[in-house]
Design brief:
This protein is mainly α. The protein has helices spanning 2-26, 30-52, 64-71.
Length: 72
């Protein structure tokens, strides 16, 4: 009856979004919470590692170390 009413008033999209909301609420309890926190931690660590890595030097830019050595 519940699913029938959801489909009647909101269509299939309403039903799918209702199921998604139930799933999303279920990952914040028990062992699923530990798995969720671990996955979010790994994703954030990977993003920080990726965006925090130094950029390679530009090939056309003069090397500052060579210029400093020539000045002495």
């Amino acid at each position: 009856m519940y699913v029938h009413d959801m489909v009647l008033y909101g269509g299939k999209t309403n039903m799918v979004m209702g199921e998604f909301a139930e799933w999303l609420g279920s990952i914040w309890h028990g062992k699923r919470l530990a798995f969720t926190v671990a996955v979010i931690t790994l994703l954030l660590a990977g993003a920080f590692f990726y965006f925090g890595a130094p950029l390679p030097p530009e090939p056309d830019a003069p090397d500052e170390n060579k210029q400093a050595a020539n000045d002495t």
